[in-house]
């Protein structure tokens, strides 16, 4: 199989294209839109005490924001400098001084008055801290004491009773790799990472359909493809630099289609600050919106394929790429039978899109020689998410949109290097280079020189549930070691999460800042360890982007607000291993980042080349420009697999709505603005269709209550262009409506969508003492705040 190399950055089209402008009025004056230049000046002001170091991070480091992979100010897609507000917002985490002692050692109830946003702004963790049972304050503790407390506890526990979790806040491949190795060395497979609650189904779905768990294409493939189709993604908000790529694609003739319940303003009109033409006049991004019901994507795709098979009856080859299917694809007849048995009535009801509109999209794709399908959390945060992804793969395989220029399947990753987390083995289902199967376990045991435990580790959600198991249960989690993350603001059922975190014997927070979960009690002790940022990591580190580019980010000198006691994350893991198993800890010893990269190249053959990354700007792409090049998939027979999928039943009753969560001006759970600059929505607004509201006699701005058998959410009605019967609330504020324990069966992602009832607040509160929950579940019942 040939492996074409990426050509590197290309020049952007300079000629202005007035047909893509939003408005001839410069800078979109008077419109509801982000104020990029004003925000940038504010961020510069916030970093004024460390401006030299902040500038070096931006010009030398690999972005620790989204997963586009900008190195310094440049990337591998377009020539010229790139900078965005997401990166600027995260910048202060790297430059700010330590928390003041009077704050960090204040009474715990005083600290609990702060939100995570407030805590983030107060500064970095200055030194190791401990708060034992019954203590009202954190105390300073030495690194030796802190690590001994953790190690001594681990020695007393069965390895099934402790767990590791790594978030994606700038953690490097080196730290993921060492964490995964140390966890297995200590005897536990309970290690998970942040992709579990964002893109884990992308990996399982793509693996099942085409044999790879990563984007098969590059951003450059957007340029000049016939169709760039975004499913459930607000790429412009999560990864603002991608808007430059979208503008370039449009200039080269690409049609951009968005499939989403809400016609997101950020995917409709955008002002790109680093492109003069767009900064002045804005860019109309989407050529068309398909406003699908939440959870209706599978049905919509059935409709597209149903019409393709109807086209085929009229003229062979008018919709299906038969040559590609015959040479490279299995399961064609089974899929055809499954699609043809779907009725148009079921497709229309589930998708919420008319037959005429579905046929329009179906014919557009049938006439397109090339297409790139990109998606994000709108497809992955469902109980049938793996099926969502395989259904997208079905469309690509039937048309041959795979393994060549201007084509491909692209899970649109939200965080820098989260792509690397599983590839490094920080995941219960994988080891570096492959799955957690007998063959790969044996291979890794030879590389590592120690025995790997053979039992299946648990995903993060199950690990949290296992904390509350009876005391004698062999899987009762008693110690949880967290690198970053805040489960109170990312997981469903935050009340249960708080209860679980408080029932741990010991909880370790290895982080750069405090958050609300750090302040929850524990039975014996809460230990807080100050971590270094990726820019402080000795010898630098690497991160993997959405398009499989592995970038080297150097250690950056000159931090005026240096945290003297902070340590590189991978070094802390090795220290822990030495204390728990001193006699054999030489097996996990690394002296430098270079040594880790040398071993990664051996452990994961895709990463052959990482050992040569040594200085700023060094980069390579694993797998070449296109995975499945020439249609040959890395499956047992080299062929892709069409998967027959049923339309899911969401259990929605008459009069109910389906609700999903959305991000505003935030980075994961870190909120940067209380009001979304794209639509003016505040954090407790419920986004709904005006016709639905009228039916319930709800006025815009009126207090409403959204409730179900799991929780209650009080907010205000905000009317937006969203498909009828669908609602959106902000994440994490709306997580109280979500039940725990509902996981997607293949990837283990929690379900972030649920049926709800909506009422005017005054009517609801008048009835609330009589009967308001559909189903009373005592330990889940939440009273509405008055």
TrEMBL record:
Domain of life where this protein originates: Bacteria
Stored Gene3D superfamilies: 3.40.50.740, Dimethylsulfoxide Reductase, domain 2
Domain Molybdopterin oxidoreductase, first and last residues per copy: 124-579
Residue ranges of domain Molybdopterin dinucleotide-binding in the record: 658-753
SUPFAM superfamilies found in the cross-reference section: ADC-like, Formate dehydrogenase/DMSO reductase, domains 1-3
Keyword list, A-Z: Iron, Iron-sulfur, Metal-binding
UniProt cross-references to NCBIfam families, sorted A to Z: Fdhalpha-like
PANTHER family, A to Z: PROTEIN YDEP, RESPIRATORY NITRATE REDUCTASE
Name this polypeptide is given: FdhF/YdeP family oxidoreductase
Organism listed in the record: Metabacillus bambusae
């Amino acid at each position: 199989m040939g492996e074409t190399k990426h050509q590197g950055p290309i020049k952007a089209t300079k000629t202005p294209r007035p047909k893509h402008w939003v408005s001839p009025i410069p800078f979109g004056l008077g419109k509801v839109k982000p104020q990029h230049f004003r925000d940038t000046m504010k961020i510069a002001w916030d970093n004024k005490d460390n401006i030299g170091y902040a500038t070096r991070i931006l010009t030398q480091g690999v972005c620790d924001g989204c997963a586009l992979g900008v190195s310094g100010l440049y990337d591998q897609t377009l020539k010229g400098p790139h900078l965005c507000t997401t990166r600027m917002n995260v910048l202060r985490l790297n430059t700010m001084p330590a928390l003041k002692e009077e704050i960090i050692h204040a009474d715990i109830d005083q600290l609990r008055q702060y939100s995570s946003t407030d805590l983030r702004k107060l500064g970095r963790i200055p030194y190791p801290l401990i708060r034992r049972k019954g203590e009202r304050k954190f105390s300073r503790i030495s690194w030796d004491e802190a690590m001994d407390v953790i190690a001594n506890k681990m020695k007393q526990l069965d390895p099934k009773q402790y767990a590791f979790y790594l978030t994606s806040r700038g953690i490097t491949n080196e730290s993921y790799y060492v964490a995964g190795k140390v966890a297995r060395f200590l005897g536990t497979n309970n290690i998970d990472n942040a992709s579990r609650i964002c893109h884990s189904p992308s990996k399982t779905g793509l693996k099942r359909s085409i044999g790879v768990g990563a984007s098969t294409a590059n951003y450059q493939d957007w340029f000049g493809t016939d169709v760039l189709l975004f499913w459930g993604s607000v790429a412009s908000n999560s990864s603002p630099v991608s808007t430059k790529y979208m503008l370039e694609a449009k200039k080269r003739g690409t049609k951009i289609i968005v499939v989403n319940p809400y016609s997101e303003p950020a995917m409709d009109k955008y002002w790109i600050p680093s492109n003069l033409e767009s900064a002045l006049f804005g860019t109309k991004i989407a050529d068309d919106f398909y406003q699908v019901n939440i959870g209706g994507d599978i049905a919509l795709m059935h409709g597209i394929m149903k019409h393709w098979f109807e086209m085929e009856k009229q003229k062979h080859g008018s919709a299906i790429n038969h040559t590609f299917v015959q040479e490279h694809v299995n399961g064609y007849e089974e899929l055809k039978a499954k699609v043809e048995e779907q009725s148009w009535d079921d497709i229309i009801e589930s998708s919420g899109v008319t037959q005429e509109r579905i046929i329009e999209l179906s014919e557009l794709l049938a006439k397109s020689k090339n297409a790139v399908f990109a998606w994000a959390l709108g497809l992955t945060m469902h109980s049938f998410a793996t099926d969502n992804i395989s259904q997208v793969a079905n469309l690509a395989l039937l048309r041959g949109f795979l393994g060549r220029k201007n084509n491909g399947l692209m899970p649109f990753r939200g965080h820098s290097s989260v792509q690397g987390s599983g590839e490094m083995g920080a995941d219960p289902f994988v080891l570096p280079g492959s799955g957690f199967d007998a063959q790969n376990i044996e291979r890794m045991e030879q590389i590592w020189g120690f025995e790997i435990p053979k039992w299946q580790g648990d995903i993060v959600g199950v690990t949290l549930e296992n904390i509350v198991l009876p005391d004698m249960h062999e899987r009762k989690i008693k110690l949880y070691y967290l690198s970053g993350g805040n489960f109170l603001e990312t997981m469903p059922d935050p009340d249960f999460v708080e209860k679980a975190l408080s029932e741990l014997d010991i909880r370790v927070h290895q982080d750069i800042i405090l958050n609300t979960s750090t302040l929850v009690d524990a039975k014996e002790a809460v230990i807080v360890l100050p971590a270094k940022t990726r820019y402080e990591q000795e010898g630098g580190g690497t991160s993997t982007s959405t398009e499989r580019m592995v970038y080297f980010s150097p250690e950056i000198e000159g931090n005026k607000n240096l945290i003297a006691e902070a340590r590189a994350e991978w070094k802390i893991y090795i220290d822990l291993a030495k204390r728990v198993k001193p006699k054999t800890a030489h097996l996990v010893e690394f002296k430098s980042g270079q040594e880790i990269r040398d071993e990664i190249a051996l452990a994961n053959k895709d990463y052959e080349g990482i050992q040569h990354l040594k200085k700023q700007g060094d980069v390579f792409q694993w797998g070449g420009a296109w995975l499945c090049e020439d249609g040959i998939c890395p499956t047992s027979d080299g062929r892709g697999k069409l998967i027959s999928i049923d339309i899911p039943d969401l259990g929605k009753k008459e009069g109910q709505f389906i609700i999903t969560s959305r991000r505003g001006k935030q980075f994961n759970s870190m909120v940067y603005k209380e009001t979304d600059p794209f639509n003016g929505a505040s954090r407790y607004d419920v986004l709904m269709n005006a016709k639905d509201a009228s039916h319930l006699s709800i006025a815009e701005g009126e207090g409403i209550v959204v409730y179900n058998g799991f929780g209650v959410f009080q907010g205000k009605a905000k009317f937006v262009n969203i498909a009828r019967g669908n609602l959106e609330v902000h994440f994490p504020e709306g997580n109280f409506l979500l039940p725990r324990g509902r996981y997607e069966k293949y990837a283990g992602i929690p379900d972030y969508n649920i049926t709800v009832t909506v009422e005017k607040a005054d009517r609801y509160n008048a009835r609330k003492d009589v009967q308001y929950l559909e189903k009373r579940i005592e330990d889940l019942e939440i009273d509405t705040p008055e």
